[in-house]
Amino acid sequence: MLCDVGKCRSQKSNNSLGLPLQRRMKTLVVFDFDHTIVDDNSDTWVLRSAPEQTLPDWLKKSYQKGLWTEYMARVLTYIGEQSVRPEHMRAVMESIPFTDGMLELLTFISENKKDIDCIIISDSNSVFIDWVLHASGVKSAVDDVFTNPASIDARGYMSVRCFHAHDCQQCPVNMCKRRVLQDFREKQAKADVHYERICYIGDGGNDFCPVRELKEGDIAMPRKGFTLEKLLRKAISEDSDALHAKIMPWTSGNEILRELTALIE
Ligand SMILES: [Mg+2]
Ligand SMILES: [Zn+2]
């Protein structure tokens, strides 16, 4: 049988021995959330639901470097104590703007799930991300969300805990995104899911650790003008072999959409 190799591989067909041909491997798209999918920081956006949309000085001053999630736990308790209802907080969170082109990109991913798996690895929390994705109508694009677990108790107070403990010296105590990505890939490999490539889309300092571990064929997609792009430029200027992945800075999700379209064609 003569056929286009790419097309043949993408179909789940049988050869003459009746053995299943290998399916085409998927692309894994990894998103950061704050300043990547949404064009702001969800942890500071929530202050818009607080009385006078600000925090008292004693609370602001209680932040200790590297302990952001612990600080957010205090912020959320404070907001609860001000009798802010979860429904109000939710409406405020749903008004956070999406980054240009991201809704189009997520819609494209949701329409191409046979070729693309998609996860979010974020230092925000599970409740905020769930609210925002749900309201946007693009939740079906996302297969899994790895973030600090949050919940709302019977009083209507929201609480948040650290995602995991890890031994990476480069990352904040609650989350090493490299570890999260490694664990995810190991879990997938056990289920015999292997990826042709990874596209990592992010903006922040905590996206640098996972991006450094990307392999040849993968694509690092740092948001133009943000910390991750600067860290990558610095790493490459110090050692031109520091990174194995191709680097594609972006301004709009539409640029990523075009790249992804070409990749899976
Ligand atoms: Mg970010
Ligand atoms: Zn790390």
Main attributes of the structure:
265 residues; alpha/beta; Rossmann fold; six-stranded parallel beta sheet; two-stranded antiparallel sheet; binds magnesium ion; binds zinc ion; Probable phosphatase phospho2; hydrolase; HAD-like_sf; phosphatase activity; magnesium
Care to describe what's here?
With 265 residues, this protein is an alpha/beta fold. It has one domain (5-40, 99-152, 164-264): Rossmann fold (3-Layer(aba) Sandwich), CATH 3.40.50.1000. The protein is 38% helix and 15% strand. It has helices spanning 5-10, 42-45, 57-60, 68-81, 86-94, 102-111, 126-136, 177-190, 208-212, 227-238, 253-264; strands at residues 26-31, 116-125, 144-148, 150-152, 158-160, 195-202, 219-222, 246-247. Strands 3-2-1-6-7-8 form a six-stranded parallel beta sheet. A two-stranded antiparallel sheet has the order 4-5. A hairpin with a 5-residue loop joins strand 4 (150-152) and strand 5. Helix 6 runs parallel beside helix 11 (253-264). The longest helix is centred in the N-terminal third of the chain and has 14 residues, at 68-81. The protein is globular. The relative contact order is 0.15. Mean pLDDT is 92; it is low at 1-13. The structure holds magnesium ion and zinc ion. Residues 32, 34-36, 202-204 line the site of magnesium ion. Zinc ion binds at residues 168, 170-171, 176, 178, 209.
